[in-house]
Amino acid sequence: MIISEKMLLENHPYYKEMGELIIHNYKYYYKNKRDGNCFYYAFIIAFLNKIKNIEEKEYKQIINKFIDSYQKVKEIKRKGLYFEDFYEMTIENISKIRKNENDIDFLKVDFNEITAYLKILISTQLLTRREKYEPFEDVDKLAAQVESFYRETGHVEIKALSDFLEIKITILSTLEPNITEYGNNSVCVSILYTHNHFEPLE
User: For the OTU domain, which residue ranges apply (predicted)?
Assistant: First the structure.
């Protein structure tokens, strides 16, 4: 199972290592699978929780980013790159959760399909805006690697996702530095990082 139920942060195994910033601003976390895709699972959970409650104007801006992404991906489509179903499942999941007044049932979320599409968005961002990332990484190599599942996620990939979707991603860590922010947009998702593992905060 990719995700467990929402849990009290004070019951987290690394609670005693968390700084005041985390303890005072967040009450819950979701325990998710530790398999190399954990950043994506954490982002999806935090993102869908955010989508549920943001203003309509902000929601439309974000959903339009996803809709526009289809054409961007299509323009750089590489041989063997399959993405149409991943795109459709991502849009469908986001739209359903936005419209549903009930709490999100994460057991019904298509995590693997959304993860696959987010990875494609990151590789697209790297290849189309390579000047932003080339000082830090071999863009062609990273773009080819990032679409593989079960691969640990680094700073450049997180920044590329934040840049593409124009969503602020805040990583709060039990290690130094305690907080790393990607982007400065009004819509923000918060993710906990502990010992090579990402989990969403609420």
Answer: 27-202
| Residues in contact with 195: Cβ distance below 8 Å, sequence separation at least 6, in sequence order | 14, 174, 175
Mean pLDDT of the chain: 93
Q: Are 6 and 36 in contact (CB under 8 A)?
A: no
Q: Which amino acid is at 169?
A: I
Span 125-166, pLDDT tens digits: 999 999 999 988 899 999 989 999 999 999 999 999 999 999
| DSSP helix, strand, coil percent of the chain (3-state; round to 5) | 55, 15, 30
**CA pair distance 50, 147, nearest whole angstrom:** 25
Rounded to two decimals, the pTM is 0.95
Which helix (H) or strand (E) covers residue 4, if one does? strand 3-8
In one letter, which amino acid is 42?
A
Give residue-wise pLDDT tens across range 5-34: 899 999 999 999 998 889 999 999 999 999
The answer to whether the beta carbons of residues 15 and 34 sit under 8 Å apart is: no
Question: Rounded to an integer, what distance in angstroms lies between the CA atom of residue 133 and that of residue 148?
Answer: 19
End-to-end CA distance of the chain: 20
Each domain of the chain, given as residue ranges in start order, spans 3-200
Task: Identify any residues that bridge with 179 across adjacent strands, giving them in sequence order.
Answer: 172
pLDDT value at residue 116? 96
Amino acid in position 134: E
